[in-house]
Amino acid sequence: MAHLTCFSCSLIIFSLSFLTLSNAVYYQVTNEDPDTPGGRNFTEIIGFEYAKEVMYVTNDFIWNTVFEQYSLEDRKPVDTVDLFMKDFKDMHPGVAAEVWEKNKINFNVNTFNGVPSDMLKRVFTSIMYHEMTHVFQWNGEGLAPGGLTEGIADYTVIRANYVDVATYTKPGEGDRWDEGYGVTARFLEYCDTLTPSFVAKLNKLMRPTYDVSFFQELTGKSVEQLWDDYKTYYGQTR
Ligand SMILES: [Zn+2]
């Protein structure tokens, strides 16, 4: 009897600590196209439980490591994140996943086609770091350039060590700071070396609005100057 009581207690303690850590964000996963090759890959190799675990881990990483948001007030209030695994067919060629209606992620199961089965979980997780960042990042009430928000989403993937360094954008590459994805993410890494926690601070400033002067505010240099310095640093002047 004592043993049973103890067991129940530990279960309650475990649930409480889980809720505290996750602030009771609920993660829901739906496989809308289970009979396609990609849909089957999801069910059989990745699985619902693993997907939910990834949502929890990426959420936690984004709050605590990338955005350094240690209190509820700093975080974007989100009750539920919905992940829909679906076959995009020809709807959005080349799109791996997207966030729509704020907290809903559409994930294209065709992304899994041609991926070796032992790499599927890694590919899934890498994309989820990017998409979950979109769910939790501030975007200046829609004023921030898309290239910047895409760059911040990719920056999370780099920080989590989920990019394939052999093929991913190298530091110093690109033509514009707001080109997006790897180019902007690498530039943001450089900004981090000038101002510690630059991305976390920039994201915080982007809560109510966006202005390009945020770069100046945080580093003392305009974004154009930073980009020039960045290109010079890596020996690739424009
Ligand atoms: Zn994106």
What would your notes on this structure say?
The protein has a 4-stranded mixed beta sheet, covered by helices on one side. The protein has 9 helices and 4 strands. It folds into 2 domains: 24-136, no CATH class; 140-238, no CATH class. Helices cover 50% and strands 9% of the residues. A hairpin with a 3-residue loop joins strand 3 and strand 4. Mean pLDDT is 90; it is low at 1-22. With 238 residues, the protein is α/β, with parallel strands linked by helices. Helix 3 packs across helix 4 (120-136) and helix 4 (120-136) crosses helix 5.
What is the averaged pLDDT score?
Answer: 90
Overall helicity: 40-55%
Roughly what fraction of the amino acids lie in strands? 5-15%
Order of strands side by side in the largest beta sheet?
1-2-4-3
List the main descriptive attributes of the protein structure presented here:
binds zinc ion; alpha/beta; globular; 9 helices; four-stranded mixed β-sheet; 238 residues
Question: Which helices and strands, and how do they pair?
Answer:
Elements: H1 2-22, E1 26-31, H2 37-46, H3 48-66, E2 80-86, E3 97-100, E4 104-108, H4 120-136, H5 146-159, H6 181-194, H7 198-205, H8 214-219, H9 223-233
Helix pairs in contact: 3-4, 4-5, 5-6
